[in-house]
Design goal:
The two termini are about 25 Å apart. The model has no long low-confidence stretch (mean pLDDT about 85). A four-stranded mixed β-sheet has the order 1-6-5-4, covered by helices on one side. A four-stranded mixed β-sheet has the order 2-3-7-8. It is mostly beta strands and about 130 residues long.
Length: about 130
């Protein structure tokens, strides 16, 4: 299980819904695995943060029973706004599709109902030793 890829978000956006503030992210290369998870309609997951000093990244590992871990790296200096939103307690939403259209993209775009919502995460501030 340790060979699952680490995904880097290339798109992020904060949004508000009824009684919830969230940040949605999209990472190229995870569409198939997210759609497979969504097809199974998962509910229970375990999540943990660790700091990877060699990459200057906070790595979130999300594990749903029976699925490969999903790893997301938030790099210091690159993903600072996203890190700050999560520290403020925003809900994390994982989109299998881009949040906004980029040149050449003709496919589906982000929709909350076709995304994976992680309503609770451990504190990013407790991610352990920063090296």
């Amino acid at each position: 299980m340790t060979d699952s890829p680490v995904h880097l978000p290339t798109q992020a956006a904060e949004f508000s819904g009824p009684a919830r503030q969230a940040v949605a992210i999209y990472c190229p290369g995870w569409t198939e695995s997210l759609l497979a998870l969504l097809a199974d309609r998962p509910t229970a997951y375990e999540a943990a943060w660790r700091f990877a000093p060699e990459q200057r990244a906070h790595v979130l590992e999300v594990v749903y029973e029976g699925a490969d871990p999903l790893r997301i790296a938030l790099v210091d200096g690159v993903h600072n706004q996203l890190i700050a939103a999560l520290v403020r307690g925003r809900t994390l939403v994982l989109s299998p599709f881009p949040l906004y259209r980029e040149p050449g993209w003709e496919g589906e775009l982000f929709a909350p109902e076709t995304s994976l919502v992680l309503p609770t995460l451990p504190s990013l501030l407790d991610a352990g030793d920063r090296g």
